[in-house]
Amino acid sequence: MALELGMITIDCANPQGLAEFWTAALGVTVEADYGPFVILARPEGGGPAMAFQQVPEPRAGKNRVHVDFGAPDPEAEVKRLVSLGAAEQARHSQPGVAWTVLADPEGNEFCVAGAGAH
Predict the structure, then answer these.
(1) Contacts of 36-43 spanning 24+ positions with Cβ under 8 A
(2) How far is CA 16 from the centre of its chain?
(3) Which residue in 40, 34, 32 sits closest to 104, CA to CA?
(4) Residue 49 in contact with residue 94, Cβ under 8 Å?
(5) SS3 breakdown of the chain: % helix, strand, coil, rounded to 5?
(6) Residue 77 gets which letter from DSSP?
């Protein structure tokens, strides 16, 4: 038996609003909108789809799971994501890799590092 990562689902208050941010961030479209559950199309290069599920409670504390993205020019990508509505949270580095922690418009954290570093 082998598992395959098919979708990453993020809990949120406003699925359509969060989908608007992530479609711009990822360059994809909305595949399905069921009101409280929105699914984005998979990225052209492959990888899992993202979905947004409405929940009644606000996010509390640090995410227990987050998504890491790689980019050829992480500095430019961080600036682009901030211009779309993300908020920079922190910068970290270890030997051979540096990454920036961002939060989407609802406060869900994700990271951007150099391509191949994630």
Answers:
(1) 39/7
(2) 14
(3) 40
(4) no
(5) 20, 40, 40
(6) H
What's the pTM?
Answer: 0.90
User: How far is the C-alpha of 69 from the C-alpha of 110, rounded, in Å?
Assistant: 8
Superfamily of domain 66-118: 2,3-Dihydroxybiphenyl 1,2-Dioxygenase, domain 1 (3.10.180.10)
Compute the residue count for the chain.
118
Equal fold, 7-57 vs 66-118: no
Could you name the CATH architecture of 7-57?
A: 2-Layer Sandwich (3.30)
Domain ranges of the chain: 7-57, 66-118
Q: Which tokens sit at 28?
A: 């994809």
- Give the pLDDT of the chain (118 residues) as one tens digit per residue: 789 889 999 999 999 999 999 999 999 999 999 999 999 999 988 889 999 999 998 777 777 789 999 999 999 999 999 999 999 999 999 998 999 999 999 999 999 998 665 5
